Task: inverse folding
């Protein structure tokens, strides 16, 4: 499931993050990827060993963890620290699938990457190109969102970032291990949760709404680990 999550960060939060990101030197993105990715990836990455990194990453992680749509759709068990990248001057990232396991640089934990998230930090009119293209069974989806908005997609998806031919595309990205490993089960839980919310809004806590809510929790009990 691809899901657009609007306004994860306010414009003021985006501006503050951008100012802090611009105040430090960035490194070649190849330094933070494996051998295969190195031949596909042309971008800059904010160095995770920078003293500023932890605070910036926490700001993005907190905003996502507080967002009800993110929580419902991802059912996060463990989020890896958000990282930051910049594509400019023709920079791109060719088709790839993200590594299945990533080490959390702070806790040392191995985290299974179930859900990928990109939070856009540049406005669409600041750059040309730079679309995130995600392939699924329905074809290719082209994503370019307002600054502060996020997209989530299954980390199992083949995806790429198109070359940026003008300006700079700055974004934050991260992986999350979900409490529900299977993407289809996560989608069904999300659809049920959204439907219950709407029914509760329309009907209040009717007997049927309470019953459906019980079903949601019992499914979660079946599938969560
Ligand atoms: Ni990727």
Result:
């Amino acid at each position: 499931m691809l899901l657009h999550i609007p306004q994860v960060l306010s414009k003021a939060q985006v501006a503050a993050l951008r100012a802090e990101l611009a105040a430090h030197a960035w490194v070649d993105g190849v330094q933070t990827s494996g051998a295969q990715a190195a031949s596909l990836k042309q971008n800059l990455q904010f160095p995770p060993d920078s003293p500023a990194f932890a605070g910036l990453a926490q700001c993005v992680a907190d905003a996502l963890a507080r967002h009800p749509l993110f929580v419902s759709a991802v059912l996060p068990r463990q989020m890896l620290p958000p990282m930051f990248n910049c594509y400019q001057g023709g920079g791109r990232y060719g088709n790839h699938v993200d590594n299945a396991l990533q080490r959390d640089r702070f806790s040392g934990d191995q985290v299974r990457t179930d859900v990928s998230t990109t939070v856009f930090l540049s406005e669409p009119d600041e750059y040309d190109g730079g679309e995130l293209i995600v392939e699924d069974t329905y074809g290719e989806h082209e994503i370019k969102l307002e600054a502060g908005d996020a997209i989530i997609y299954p980390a199992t998806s083949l995806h790429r970032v198109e070359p940026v031919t003008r300006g700079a595309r700055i974004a934050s990205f991260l992986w999350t291990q979900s409490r529900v490993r299977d993407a289809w089960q996560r989608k069904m839980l999300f659809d049920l949760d959204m439907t219950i919310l709407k029914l509760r809004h329309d009907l209040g806590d009717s007997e049927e709404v309470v019953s459906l809510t019980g079903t949601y929790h019992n499914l979660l009990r079946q599938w969560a680990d």
In short: The helical segments are 11-22, 35-40, 53-66, 68-74, 183-203, 207-223. The pocket of nickel (II) ion is lined by residues 96, 98, 159 (CB under 6 Å).
